[in-house]
Amino acid sequence: MTPADLSRAVLRTVRRAVEADELCAVVPATVGVRVPPHPGCGDYATNVALRLAKESGRPARDVAEVLRRRLVREPGIARVEIAGPGFLNITLQGHSRARLVRDVLGRPADREPLPVHPPAALVRRLGSDAARWSLLSPPGLDRDLLLVQRDGNPLFRVRYAHSRCLSLIRNARDLGFGPDVDDSVDDFGDGSAPLLAALADHPRIVAVRDPERLARALERLADAFLRWQTSCTTLPRGDEKPSVVHRARLALAEATGKVLADGLHQLGITAPARL
């Protein structure tokens, strides 16, 4: 079950509860799911019960219990728990985080160009890549910042994160191993939850075909990756032998690099292997 499948399952659950008069509310057009920020809270979480509580006139935890009873019967869902004020924490059957990484790596590249057409004067001033990114940036960004390779430059961070992914794969190859992830590994280390969440959300972003939303999503993905690879050991150290965990974390880096490259190419921006 992919994140999109799970979103549809949650939405279907809400609709059936409303049709059965278990809830008095308008069925939302969409329902979001995300990877929880901490391990042990299920594979995905949704705040749909909190969204429906005010309209239904019932406590959010009561709404969550109505949905929990139905949702746990959906194929592919192993367990549903209520957390905090009314969040639903959902555990899928099997190892969903490993499967998410495999799904990203197995997904065909989506590089269909998006409409980003900077004026010629801007291209002459900034170059093609920075000119394109500047059109997608929030108001007030100093366009000349896009020419400087430093953390304050969002385009640099995205491209640096991509090049860092490829660097990890090259270094692993020099050590005699490559990326691989199987169901024996479902914990990708400290800080991996935001990274996995950004990867899980990427198909939804791409489907909208909005260049500005894609640019912001690439920034979030790059920043999540850079934080993760700083706090989590991806490659063996010293005489340490490569383990299944190292291979799985390398696969996560490879998946991140793939999504960053595809997104940049959709925006008409180059994705250098080295910076």
Question: Any overview of this molecule?
Answer:
The protein has 275 residues and is mainly α. The radius of gyration is 21 Å and the shape is globular. The chain is 53% helix and 6% strand. The chain has a 3-stranded antiparallel sheet with strand order 1-3-2, with helices on one face. A hairpin with a 3-residue loop joins strand 2 and strand 3 (87-92). The protein has 10 helices and 3 strands.
Name some characteristics of this structure.
275 residues; three-stranded antiparallel sheet; 3 strands
What is the element layout, followed by pairings?
Blueprint: H1 3-19, E1 44-46, H2 48-56, H3 60-71, E2 77-83, E3 87-92, H4 96-106, H5 120-126, H6 128-135, H7 154-174, H8 192-208, H9 211-231, H10 244-266
Antiparallel strand pairs: 1-3, 2-3
Helix pairs in contact: 1-3, 2-3, 4-10, 5-6, 7-9, 7-10, 8-9, 8-10, 9-10
